[in-house]
Amino acid sequence: MSKVPLSRTGDIVWSRTPKTNSELFTLTYGVLVAQLLRDFEKVEEVNKELRRMGRNIGVRLIDEYLSKVSLASPTTPPCSTFHQTGDSIAKIGFKMFLGISCDISYPSPTTFVLTVHSNPLSTFVEIPPSREGLSYCEIMNGVIEGSLGAVSLRVESRFRKQIEKGDDVTTIEVEMMERIKDGVGEGYKDE
Amino acid sequence: AVSETLFNLLLQQVISYVQNLPSLPTSESQASLIDLPLPSSFSLDPCNSLSIVKYLCKDFWSKVFGHQITKLQTNHRGVFVLKDDSFPLLADLSAPLPPTSRLLAILTLAYPCGLIRGALKGFGRESVVSCDFLNDGENVESTSFNVKILM
After folding, report:
1. Is residue A186 over pLDDT 70?
2. Where is the chain membrane-spanning (chain A) (predicted)?
3. Chain B residues with CB inside 8 Å of A17's CB?
């Protein structure tokens, strides 16, 4: 185990990260979702498109993550269990990109659940009843799947609770489906 | 605050989404994709367009992009030129621009044009915003926005 707690590493990386106004980010994401709702007939298609965009973002975020974290904390060993992967996402990943850290629990060896108390993506959002099927923050699932996919972990990420739908917290359940054998991803992990 | 990288990646997704639309929209509708009506929370002379544009150049630009507009020019008849010498969204490009990056830069700049228009809309002003970049042919980050406020 590394001597430096993950949350400390997260704080270090966050303090060194160039930042952007979060309202700008939130509103930009909001107009994107609004535009998608106008362009697609079904909310399911909007969800799918958001997830696809999230994957594209995820595969690039993981590069930034690996390079920044290895600089901030060279002694951190690669994740050896899926739960450690979850810890790293909760304490470093969320912190360094969204400026928040989230709680984590482990219902089973191949699953972890992230609990987000305030979600910067959906700060100003309420979903009207007519758009009930919309998964507003679906892009987050895509980011998690895309970034873990790039390091040889095929996972499925889905929401259990969503603040914008009236829940008190947002919870994301991430389940490991398989460890992809043989791929460029392995090379990234051995440092 | 959120990470700048994350924001830039989100913006890239927006741009590639717009690029892949079946019919490429005009520059006008590209901008309106990201119109942001941002209400102000303080008082300023609402009758005076110049004071509104000054607010955009100073407070608004600082809040959104971290610095003020470098230079503001106006003909005092509704036309304003806002010059930014280090526009952050173009910082990753390098001169001289290949034609493909040029298109990308133009699409990227639809975003701040929409921001300016949306902000002016928040003050009850309709406007036409266009953008010149590569003013001097060398400094890629240097851009200027032409704002025409319609009375």
Report:
1. no
2. none
3. 3-5
Q: Which residue of B has its CA nearest to A57?
A: B9
pLDDT of residue A2: 47
Sequence-ordered alpha helix ranges (H) in B61-129: 61-65, 99-122
Could you tell me which of A12, A145, A181 has the C-alpha nearest to residue A91? A12
Q: Tell me the CA distances in angstroms from B129 to A28, B14, B20, one per residue in order.
A: 19, 20, 24
Mutate to test the interface with B, among A31, A64, A94 (most CBs of B within 10 A): A31
Contact predicate A30/A125, CB 8 Å:
yes
pLDDT reading at A143 higher than 90: yes
Residue that the structure tokens 């002016």 belong to: B120
The ipTM (two decimal places) reads: 0.87
> What does the pLDDT read at residue A103?
94
CB-based contact A31 B36, cutoff 8 Å: yes
Q: What are phi and psi of A158, to 5 degrees?
A: -150, 160
**Segments of chain B scoring below 50 in pLDDT:** 42
Q: Name the 3-class secondary structure at B35.
A: coil
Is B4 at the interface with chain A, CB within 8 A? yes
Closest CB to B2: pick one of A31, A57, A99. A99
Domain boundaries, chain A: 6-180
Write the pLDDT tens digit of every residue in B10-50. Answer: 988 888 887 777 665 555 555 555 555 555 554 556 668 88
CB pairs under 8 A between A and B: 73
Q: Which residue of B has its CA nearest to A22?
A: B1
Q: Which CATH class is domain A6-180?
A: alpha beta
CA gap B98, A8 in Å, rounded = 43
CB of A91 closer than 8 Å to CB of A13:
no
Share of chain A above pLDDT 70, in %: 93
